[in-house]
């Protein structure tokens, strides 16, 4: 399992990032243990507010991604993530449908087209599928 923060790598955590991450981990520890065990999570990404933003350090901007499926080649990439964020992902919302069926229907119709969809699964929790041709 890999861990990164803010896209800068695990060795460059800011003190503010640390406090936000540890508060999140402490609050959700039993659920996270179960999630990581059940999905056999490959990677955990932590995204805190951007450096220099006026509201840096505000927990509402914090996002944690748990990548549980990844196939990446030179010509395409497919990722499935479970995301915790108080702000929905910048993707297309899928409701009332199976997200995997929607993905395969779109991918089968045009395998050279970007697919980026998500579905809410609980308060502030989402499942997201991204395909990059």
Write a structural description.
Strands 1-2-3-4-7-6-5 form a 7-stranded mixed sheet. The protein has one domain. It has 2 helices and 7 strands; from the N terminus they run βαββββαββ. Strand 5, helix 2 and strand 6 form a beta-alpha-beta unit. With 133 residues, it is α/β, with parallel strands linked by helices. The protein is globular, with a radius of gyration of 16 Å.
- Report the uncertain regions: 1-16
Shape: globular
How much of the residues is beta strand, in percent?
25-35%
Please state the CA-atom Rg, rounded to the nearest Å: 16 Å
State mean pLDDT (0 to 100 scale). Answer: 75
* Main pleated sheet: 7 strands, mixed
Number of helices: 2
Oligomer: single chain
Secondary-structure map:
Elements: E1 2-5, H1 15-39, E2 43-47, E3 63-72, E4 77-85, E5 92-93, H2 99-109, E6 115-122, E7 125-132
Parallel strand pairs: 1-2, 5-6
Antiparallel strand pairs: 2-3, 3-4, 4-7, 6-7
Notable traits:
2 helices, 133 residues, globular, 27% helix, alpha/beta, disordered N terminus, seven-stranded mixed β-sheet
Task: Characterize this entry briefly.
The chain contains two helices and seven strands; from the N terminus they run βαββββαββ. It has 133 residues and is α/β, with parallel strands linked by helices. Strand 5, helix 2 (99-109) and strand 6 (115-122) form a beta-alpha-beta unit.
